[in-house]
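This part of the workshop introduces the protein records we will be handling. A learned vocabulary of local backbone shapes supplies the integers on the structure line. Getting from the letters to the tokens is the skill we practise here. As an example, a complete record with its sequence and its structure tokens follows.
=====
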Amino acid sequence: MARALHQHGEFVIGSPVLAAMAPAPGQGQGALFVVVLQIAALIAIFYFLLIRPQRNQQKQHQTMLEALKKGDEVVTGGGIIGRIVHIKDDRVTIQSAESRLVIERARIARVIVPTATEEPAAK
């Protein structure tokens, strides 16, 4: 078989060579399976490392907000520390030093739990 030259003088690969290099029917399925498996593994990693812990944290925060009661000492998202004096629907009135502030219930970051060492000092 004679070699065919392209118009620029390069050799052209004949069709029998291309046919030999082509994958056999059904071989492409294995590679596709590996790619799908890698994508599924990546999604699972994102779910278990990012999405699931964030959902659990949101549930804990919501439970904490529902359990708020008058007299709890809280810290807001802005860092203000105060004691709850009034709760109404989605608004909470806190007293911090000499001032009273009305804030959204969702802006309360955490409830300060009094420790055993703080109790005698307060009396």
Q: What stands out?
A: The chain has a mean pLDDT of 84. The beta strands are 73-76, 81-88, 91-96, 99-104, 108-112.
